Amino acid sequence: MEQPEGFVVPGKERKVCKLVKSLYGLKQPPKQWHAKFDQTMLANGFKINECDKCVYIKNTPNHEVIVCLYVDDMLIMSRDITDINATKGIFG
């Protein structure tokens, strides 16, 4: 989410506003969250599945890592636990 035009104070662009309306039910926050998730996955070598935009695949030297996203839940699959833990590490 971004602050409305005219409300941004120079030097404090990353500050937040107090919301008068709940974010639940709005279309913008989920779309922006998914865009940020896509950006993070692509930056870490994953590719988006063409058939299902919520499936991400990364080929490592020894194995394949598959991440399935459903709303705010994630399933990480690989034959190697090291790859799974490395993928978890992307998110903190």
Automatic annotation (TrEMBL):
Residues 1-88 form the Reverse transcriptase Ty1/copia-type domain. SUPFAM superfamilies: DNA/RNA polymerases. This is Reverse transcriptase Ty1/copia-type domain-containing protein. InterPro entries: DNA/RNA_pol_sf, RVT_2. The lineage of its organism: Eukaryota, Viridiplantae, Streptophyta, Embryophyta, Tracheophyta.
